[in-house]
Amino acid sequence: MKAALFYGSNQPLRLEEVDKPTPKKNEVLVKVAACGLCHTDLHYLDHGVSTFKKPPVILGHEVSGIVEAAGEEVKNLKPGDKVIVPPVFTCGQCEMCRTGRENVCNQMLMLGNHMDGAYAEYVVAPAKDTIPFIEGIPLEEGCIIADAVSTPFHALVNRADLKPGNSVAVFGCGGLGINAVQIAKALGAYVIGVDIKEKKLEQARQFGADEAFISDADLPKKIRKLTGGGVHIAIEAIGNPVTMQTAFSTIRTGGTLIVMGYSDKDITVNAGRIMFREMKIVGTLGCPPYLYPSLLKLVSMGKIKVKELVTHKFPLDNINDGFSLLRQGEESLIRAIVTC
């Protein structure tokens, strides 16, 4: 099969012919329809972040496709089924898995990191973690549900405990943030989008933001005035410590800051304010498997959009062109996918 292999940072992916994987007794072989191009992969490609599997390794962790073959013990899936493959596989046995928090499984394995991913014509996955599609969802564009849509869904539903009528400020209206905007709106929130680019704010409005602001020094004051004391939930979708601190300054008494963007840097917040005003700072990672059916139903009902999010498509042969566009920060780009 054809695959795009990662050999190390600061070099393009190499298109090569490799052996098609064979599913084990509890796995499925999936013919990849599409795989999202994610900023996580840029950490490997450009920033020296190592994959757990020693290169060469196939990247790609946001997958949709069709089951081609199933292992002998697989009962829930069959050849021809349309599926989503989540980015993280779980053990099903540790404390986190047994308490419904599989997304932070103690033995999690990430596709395109611990094992070969889906920038390829085929990928294997555990059948227990593979999610059947619901009719009405486009197969190719639906790949982004696996990560870019499911991650903010879990963040808002589980970690933020969003309620209808809550006010939500989304900091960073890119690939993750734009989904936080539309999901918060679909769940009944009053939504404020924040970014440094007007084009991103325009997109936030298109996906449901009630207000949209360029980030500046007066932003916290504007948001507190607009919402009568601050938002119930601020969600940081960039991974910038300064933005996290700004987001924290916009939440009200009893409010919650959701840290969805990744950074290895420290942030500084006032401990007394957290204590005296009963505020929360909450991390969030991925999405537990049990939430996917509810999310897919919302997508199939048209409450959450996916087709409109995919602004660029690249064939596997041109995957490096796709990553070049991602690096450039093209303003018209919301999500890009590779089709196989």
Could you provide a short overview of the structure?
The chain has helices spanning 39-46, 95-98, 150-159, 177-186, 198-206, 219-226, 241-248, 271-276, 292-300, 319-328, and strands at residues 2-6, 14-17, 27-36, 57-58, 63-70, 82-85, 88-89, 109-110, 122-126, 131-132, 167-171, 190-195, 211-214, 231-236, 251-259, 280-283, 310-315, 335-339.
Structure write-up:
- The protein has two domains: 2-147 and 288-339, Medium-chain alcohol dehydrogenases, catalytic domain (Quinone Oxidoreductase, Chain A, domain 1, Alpha-Beta Complex); 150-283, NAD(P)-binding Rossmann-like Domain (Rossmann fold), CATH 3.40.50.
- Helix 3 crosses helix 4 (177-186).
- It is built from ten helices and 18 strands.
- By secondary structure, it is of the alpha/beta class.
- The strands form four sheets. Strands 3, 5, 6, 9, 10, 17 and 18 form a seven-stranded mixed β-sheet that branches. Strands 13-12-11-14-15-16 form a six-stranded parallel β-sheet, sandwiched between helices.
- Helix 7 links the parallel strand 14 (231-236) and strand 15 (251-259).
